[in-house]
Design brief:
The chain is of the alpha+beta class. The chain has nine helices and 21 strands. It has helices spanning 25-43, 57-66, 138-141, 144-153, 177-180, 186-196, 237-246, 250-262, 280-291; strands at 3-9, 12-18, 45-49, 70-71, 83-85, 88-90, 100-103, 115-122, 126-127, 130-134, 155-161, 199-203, 206-214, 217-219, 226-228, 269-272, 295-297, 304-308, 312-316, 319-320, 324-331. α7 (237-246) packs antiparallel against α8 (250-262). The structure holds fe (ii) ion. Its cofactor is Fe(2+).
Length: 335
């Protein structure tokens, strides 16, 4: 008989699944969907331990559909990653020496995914713990004057997306326009931008992309709550340099500093809605505020971490060896 036992680890609530066979998986998650969805909504984060079948991408997708989430694609996302199968993607191809700073997925667009789920295929040999952070706390921690300033002026991410042949030359996060927009030609890239209302221009073969102008906080789709949801702490030269420093990536730090000084247009920039870059001090304040929320979660093979993408941010520590985590982004559906 399949058992769903409640567990609680370092303040993160969850269930341990015991004795589940592959053939029972879909039925089991369809039946338990109301409890699991309620726990995700109430707590913002939920850990499902022992779902060994979920390491198989097709089964992971079946589980997310059985739970009643509508899966989404990742067009316009910023992390270097590729699709594995169906709507299942690798978590990120960001090199192991990089940590990943806490962030809500695609929080720089108007409609970020409402749910993000991680399935652990293989944990890292050393390091690589996942991190989560309760973003409901930021609205209370941030200076009221900062919240007012960002609410009045808005936030807008300006991205530099090189052609895939030149992407290795870019300091910081390396993602080409072909990868970011799932496009093979410039025409396809332009279509992807226009259909989402994003402004763009070409600098020779590189694409400069302006994503949506957003408010720093959003209304939760199922709760009467305004939640901090943006990546003002993540982008911009000051954040990239601080991130490299925290990771002890000395070469990256120097490369980013030089680019910030001599050719800032090579780097992304987090701007106010009118295009003026955020002041360095504000970026760094937010960087450390969000970093202070980091909470480690150890994922083992067969574990699924379900996050409400508004209530909880996610990240990871640097690692060595192989680390395989799959990811699905999705939205709530009526259920
Ligand atoms: Fe992410």
């Amino acid at each position: 008989m399949v058992m769903l036992k409640e567990c609680n680890e370092s303040g993160l609530s969850g269930f341990t699944v015991d004795g589940l066979s592959v053939t029972d998986t879909q039925n089991f998650f369809t039946q338990t969907a109301p409890d699991i969805r309620e726990a995700v909504l109430n707590n913002g984060a939920l850990l499902l331990r022992g779902v060994v079948q979920s390491a198989e991408p097709a089964v992971f997708e079946v589980i997310m559909n059985a739970l009643g989430f509508r899966t989404r694609d990742y067009i316009g996302g910023s992390s270097p990653r590729s699709t594995i199968k169906g709507k299942v993607m690798e978590a990120t191809r960001t090199p192991p020496a990089w940590s990943i700073i806490l962030h809500q997925e695609m929080a720089y667009v108007k409609h970020p995914p409402e749910i993000i789920a991680f399935s652990c295929v293989k944990p890292a040999t050393e390091g690589g713990e996942s991190t989560i952070g309760d973003m409901r706390r930021i609205t209370k921690l941030v200076e009221p004057s900062t919240l007012q300033l960002l609410t009045e002026r808005g936030l807008r991410l300006r991205r530099t997306l090189p052609d895939e042949n030149r992407v290795h030359l870019k300091p910081g996060i390396k993602k080409s326009w072909q990868e970011a927009l799932s496009a093979k030609t410039k025409e396809e890239a332009e279509f992807a931008c226009r259909s989402r209302g994003w402004e763009f221009e070409w600098w020779n073969d590189d694409l400069i992309l302006w994503q949506d102008c957003i408010s720093p906080v959003r209304q939760h789709p199922r709760k009467n709550e305004l939640i901090w949801c943006n990546q003002a702490h993540f982008w911009g030269a000051a954040a990239m340099i601080e991130w490299a420093r925290v990771d002890s990536r000395n070469e990256d730090e120097e490369e980013l500093k030089e680019a910030a000084q001599n050719c800032p247009e090579l780097l992304e920039s987090m701007c106010f809605g009118d295009g003026e870059p955020l002041p360095e001090e504000l970026t760094l304040n937010l960087f450390h505020l969000v970093k202070g929320l980091e909470q480690d979660v150890n994922l083992n093979t067969g574990d699924i971490l379900l996050l409400d993408n508004l209530q909880f941010a996610h990240g990871r520590h640097a690692f060595s060896g192989n680390r395989e985590i799959n990811v699905i982004i999705a939205d709530w559906t009526e259920h």
